[in-house]
Every structure is written in C-alpha cells, then in structure tokens.
Amino acid sequence: MPGLGLRVTQEEEAFPGGPRVLVTGATGLLGRAVCREFHISGWSVVGTGYRRARPHLLRCDLTDEDAIRGLLHEHQPDVIVHCAAERRPDVVDRHTEAAVNLNVHATSTLAKEAAVSGALFIYISTDYVFDGRNPPYGEDDSPNPLNLYGRSKLEGERETLRHCPGAVVLRVPVLFGEVESLTESVVTNLWLKVEAAEGCTLDHCRQRFPTDARDVAAVCRKLAERAKEDPSIRGIFHFSGKEQMTNYEMALAIAHAFNLPSNHLIPLTEQSPGSALRPVNAQLNCTRLELLNLSVEPRPFSSAITDCLWPFTPDKRWRQTVFH
Ligand code: NAP
C-alpha cells in the first residue's frame, strides 16, 4: 500500500542515546508496529527483515547462525523482540524444513546469544500452541498444538526458555493492523469477501479474538521497560483482544463499520477440508499481564479495523476518521 512502507522506513531511524531494541521480522505485520511503538517511546530501534528489507532496515537471514551472531555483536541490543516467523499453517505444512529452521532453530540461536549478552529476549508465540478444546487457557495450562505451525512455535518457546531462562514468551491470537496488502492478515483479507458482489462463504465455527498489532506492540514495550527494574518479569504471558468472533462475524462487523451490505455473506459451520487443522477456541486468559498492570485496553474491533482498512476503500473517505 503506498505510504505505509515509507512510514516504517522513517521510524527505523536510530534514536541515539535511548535504550536499544532489536526487532526481528520488522518488515512484517507485528514487527512494523513494534518498531513504531518503541521508536515513539524514545528507544533506539534496529529492525531486521529478509525478503522485504529496505533502506533503514537490516537484511538478515535468521536461519544463518553466523549472521545472527554478527548482528547481535554489532548492535548490542538491551532488548530483542523476536517477531520473525513463518506463521501460515498451510505454508508450514508444505515447507516444513524451512519453517522449522526459522521458527525453532533461529529462535534457539537468538535465545542462546541473548543469554550470553544479557539482553532481554521477548519471543512472540501463538494461541495455536493449544488444541482449543477447553478454553480459556492460562499461562500454565498444558499446550497441545493441532498443527505443525503450533508445534514449531511451541518448540520455539521451549528453546527460548531452555537457553534463556530470563526470557519472556508472549502468546497472542490472530492479529490485524496496518497492512501493506490485504492478504497480510486473515482479518484484513475479509475485506475482499465483504466487497464481493456475489455470495461468499465464511468460517463460522472457529471462535477467534482478533487483536490489533499496535496493542501487542504496546505490551512488548511495557514488558521491556518493566523488566529493566523487575527481574521477575520472565516466562510466559498471554495477551488478547476481548471480542470473540468467528470469521463470519468479523466480516459482518467490517460491513457494518463501512456501511456496506452483508446479505451475500454465508456462514460455514464446518472446517474446510484440506487445510491444516486449527483450534476451535483457543481463548487466552491474560491474568498474569493484568495482575502486573502490564496489559493495555484492547482497541474496539470496529474502530481498529476501520483504521486498517480505509486505505483500501475506493474513495478514501474514511481517511478523515483516522487519528495518528
Ligand atoms: P509476518 O507478517 O508474516 O512477518 C514475518 C516476518 O518474518 C517478516 O518480517 C519476514 O521478513 C521475516 N522472515 C521470514 N523469513 C525470514 C528469514 N529466513 N530470516 C529473517 N526474517 C525472516 O508475521 P507476523 O504476522 O508479523 O507475525 C509476527 C509473530 O507473531 C510471529 O512470531 C507469529 O508466529 C506470531 N503470531 C502472528 C499471528 C498473526 O495472526 N499474524 C497470530 C499469532 C501469533 P521478509 O518479509 O522481509 O522476508
């Protein structure tokens, strides 16, 4: 999307003198929001990407152990927020070795290096570590991932805490945010169905908790800042939006927010065959963050999704409703 790439680039400029954060996956949906959040809070931000790396972002293949060591040696971050991952379950099924190299082995190397350097390591994980049969899930509940993606992320969590016991694991559910293309998030991708002229089917059996990447970024920043003064900030945390919706219900909410028709949207109450299995309801109980006053109030879905989708509306009339 024109404009968004430039905005990220500007915010990657170092902030001399502030504490230093290294953000992996800075070209991705969450990594961009994390870079922005730390930058506006006075941190010096170094972001890494891979295929989409552009000026002011470092290109680093995290599956190359020497490249990781060189990166950390050069930048000596106080905090590492590890967002890079292959997060599409069907791609993990098709390209398992590459996904495991990134989701597990790269995480393991980063955690080892963080432990050696003393940097706080924040590993972003997923509600897909749970099977979704007995929600809500607390931080100490036993994971049981249904698909390879969930298994690889759980393995990443275990490598993180094994090699870097002072690390933070932050599990989050389905994310949306400012996207460069609608397909970057399954939530923004629903716009294509809302806009379609003909009947469209949408999943109406899996309960989801769409969460704004900006809210997750704010939680990462709060965790990083608190951890500097409180060594008990370590281990597993959950953060989630509070509104429970199926994909069908999200599409209805989007149609309603943009005053568009929704009678062409058809709810599907069975999982589509052929795709990777997904949990029916992996609701996260976020008590630990809340008790420590480290949570943020999630933005309401209808206004947050409007912020994200207005650039894709034909007449851009929603621009006037967005505050930055
Ligand atoms: P994303 O938009 O798909 O971004 C993935 C990032 O990983 C990109 O910056 C990509 O860089 C980078 N990457 C891919 N291969 C790499 C490699 N070999 N070396 C270095 N970097 C590489 O992901 P996201 O949605 O922001 O997800 C962020 C985190 O949240 C992930 O850990 C994911 O598991 C977790 N999560 C996401 C969701 C969700 O709905 N999106 C839900 C729950 C949890 P290039 O694009 O430049 O190649």
Automatic annotation (TrEMBL):
The keyword Calcium does not apply. One of its GO terms (cellular component) is methionine adenosyltransferase complex. Signal peptide: none annotated. It holds the Pfam family RmlD_sub_bind. Coiled coil: none annotated. Residues 20-312 form the RmlD-like substrate binding domain. One of its GO terms (biological process) is S-adenosylmethionine biosynthetic process. GO terms for molecular function: methionine adenosyltransferase regulator activity. Pathway: Amino-acid biosynthesis; S-adenosyl-L-methionine biosynthesis; S-adenosyl-L-methionine from L-methionine: step 1/1. Keywords: One-carbon metabolism. Heterotrimer; composed of a catalytic MAT2A homodimer that binds one regulatory MAT2B chain. Heterohexamer; composed of a central, catalytic MAT2A homotetramer flanked on either side by a regulatory MAT2B chain. NADP binding increases the affinity for MAT2A. Regulatory subunit of S-adenosylmethionine synthetase 2, an enzyme that catalyzes the formation of S-adenosylmethionine from methionine and ATP. Regulates MAT2A catalytic activity by changing its kinetic properties, increasing its affinity for L-methionine. Can bind NADP (in vitro). Belongs to the dTDP-4-dehydrorhamnose reductase family. MAT2B subfamily. This is Methionine adenosyltransferase 2 subunit beta.
